[in-house]
Amino acid sequence: MKLGSRGRYAVMAMVDLGLNAGARPVRLADVSYRQEIPLSYLEQLFARLRRHGLVNSVRGPGGGYLLAHPARRISIMDVVAAVDEPTRVTRCRNESPSRGCMANRTRCLTHDLWAGLGEQIETFLDDVTLEDVCQGPQRAATHYLDHNATSPLRPQARKAAFRAMTCAGNASSVHRHGRHARSLIEDAREIVASYVGCSPLEVVFTSGGTEANNLALLGPDCRRVLISAIEHPSVARAVRGSVAIPVDHHGCVDLEVLEAELAHDAGPALVSVMAANNETGVVQPLADVMHIARQHGALVHCDAVQAAGRYCGAWQKADLVSLSAHKFGGMTGAGALIVRDGVPLAARSRGGGQEYGLRAGTESLAAIAAFGAAVTAASGDDAARLRQLRDDMEARMLDAVPDAVVFSGDAGRLDNTLAIAHPEIDAETMVMSFDLDCVAISAGSACSSGRMEPSSVIEAMGFPSLSRHAVRLSLGWSSTPEDCDAAVRAWKAADTRHRARRQAAR
After folding, report:
1. Cβ contacts of residue 419 below 8 Å, gap of 6+?
2. Structural domain count, the chain
3. Cβ neighbours of residue 506 under 8 Å, at least 6 residues apart?
4. Distance (Å, rounded) from C-alpha 127 to C-alpha 352?
5. Looking at the structure, do residues 328 and 366 belong to the same domain, yes or no?
6. In a shared domain, residues 161 and 112
7. Residue 374 class from Cβ within 10 Å (0-12 exposed, 13-18 middle, 19+ buried)?
8. C-alpha–C-alpha distance, residues 111 and 95, integer Å
9. Which residues contact 129 (CB under 8 A, 6 or more apart)?
10. Which of 92, 167, 222, 447 is catalytic?
11. Residue 260 CB-half CA count within 13 A
12. 125 and 183 assigned to the same domain
């Protein structure tokens, strides 16, 4: 598609209006000068824009034009359509099912291709507002360092999701549309299975990590459930009466206590220990955990939501493994529970019998297709790059604030994660300060950070006085050195503002 002069000039002029019109109208002569558009042509365009209710004219001395609505409510497609600029790629359009693009009113062989592309272009232009374009430089300066909460959608996943959205079939239907949907799901299942190292028959798709964790903990018929003291709430709150195994000051589970608890009661047990902590990134000694558990005949569940897509290891050999797509560039709404062959598990939902009878309900086709694409994209080795970025950022932050505390820094941890506390600035203030400097970080688990509660993970590690001060910076596939530079600047700025306030209070 190539926009003609009408569309390009109209968008340029409207953006100029958005940037320069406050309470006072903007003269078209000024727009003409700034954008190098003939004034006579602008007058014709603005006559159309006014008829469509996008601008208001003010007559008399000091007159000109104002936006008729806030810039956030005017899409680029609104502007393009108002000046009658065609957005189709070719003559192929889907305006009428009975009318094609050929002279005999039939559709050409490539009609759906070009018509679909035209619809995508219109959707894109409809999603972009004047405000988006006006704030382009500011939006580009936003630095996202919260990948452990959710990672931006990878281009490969977006492409797979869009393709799946064009499939109208239900994967449980036997007609060709249903078979196509089923093939997309099974392709994703095979990709996940290959990555984890299991059979596709052992992959049960869920709505995400929380549902996978609940199914893993509530599905087996076990009398006792033992968990680490720093598990995600979807594990810690899933079973009443679960036994919490303490952790050391690094956040690693106490293996001696685990063994003693298992030896204390020989009844059927389930041990649930996460692969890597979502707040500190500490990696658990899962090989030792599994060895101890299996000596006592216990099943092992591993919440690998933070580990999957970031590193391969012992977590892949657990009896039950939870995954979540959006943590490494997939869509929210898709996860999986790996259920090893022979592990007894009862369904927690009743319905159509999807997912081998373990998870009822129609599968989210687009999210699952994106899940598979994200797994493939995340399989590349990005760990060394992220570790270098994280370590350099950490060193500069400690250099700026020597009293700051890094959690699990001396233990094995995820290459992308930095948990750090400024001893004099609480986490809520720090997160807000970073946000003012256009850097996104978080405090605590993403599922609870809205409440800004003290970190139970930091408390369990033996740092109760710092539990309200810990923040997390987590990198991912889209992270750049510029993101880390911005984080260091925001950290220094927060410290400077704090010291200034303290000095002023004296």
Report:
1. 279, 280, 281, 406, 407, 408, 458, 470, 471, 472
2. 3
3. none
4. 36
5. yes
6. no
7. buried
8. 12
9. 71, 72, 73, 74, 75, 76
10. 447
11. 8
12. no
CATH of the domain at 424: 3.90.1150.10
**Which residues does the chain have with pLDDT short of 50?**
138, 140, 449
In degrees, rounded to 5, the angle at the alpha carbon of residue 323 between the alpha carbons of residues 320 and 326 is 170
Q: Confirm if 270 and 301 have CB atoms less than 8 A apart.
A: yes
Angular region, 355: left φ>0, alpha ψ -120 to 50, beta rest: left
C-alpha–C-alpha distance, residues 420 and 13, integer Å: 47
Read off the amino acid at residue 406: V
Query: If 0-12 CB within 10 Å is exposed, 13-18 middle and 19+ buried, where does residue 331 land?
Result: buried
pTM for the whole structure: 0.78
pLDDT of residue 197: 97
The question of whether 198 is a catalytic residue gets the answer no
State residue 449's pLDDT score: 46
Chain position carrying tokens 């995820």: 414
492 and 358 together in one domain: no
3-state secondary structure of 141: coil
Determine which helix (DSSP H) or strand (DSSP E) holds 56, and give its type and residue range: strand 55-58
126 and 26 together in one domain: yes
Q: Give residue 318's pLDDT.
A: 98
Name the token pair of 365: 């086709």
Please give the pLDDT value at position 375. Answer: 97
d(CA 42, CA 30): 11
Give the chain's radius of gyration (CA, Å).
28
* Distance between CA atoms of residues 419 and 469, nearest Å: 10
Q: Are residues 201 and 132 in the same domain?
A: no
Tokens of 397: 């932050």
Query: Residue 281: CA atoms inside 13 Å, Cβ hemisphere, count?
Result: 28
Residue type, 2: K
Residue 402 is encoded by which pair of tokens? 């020597």
- Give me the pLDDT at residue 88, please: 63
Predicted pLDDT at 504? 83
User: Hey, which residues does 243 pair with through a beta bridge?
Assistant: 226
pLDDT tens, position by position, 64-89: 999 999 999 999 999 999 998 776 65
Q: Which two tokens stand for residue 394?
A: 């950490």
Neighbours of 163 (CB within 10 A): 14
Looking at residue 134, its pLDDT comes to 86
CA-to-CA separations, 177 to 172, 351, 366, 430, in angstroms, rounded: 10, 22, 14, 51
Cβ atoms within 10 Å of 138's Cβ, excluding its own: 9
Tokens 């003693």 sit at which residue?
260
Which residues constitute the domain of residue 88?
5-140
Three-class secondary structure assignment of 398-424: HHHCCCCEECCCCCCECCCEEEEECCC
Burial class (CB within 10 angstroms; exposed 0-12, middle 13-18, buried 19+) of 342:
exposed
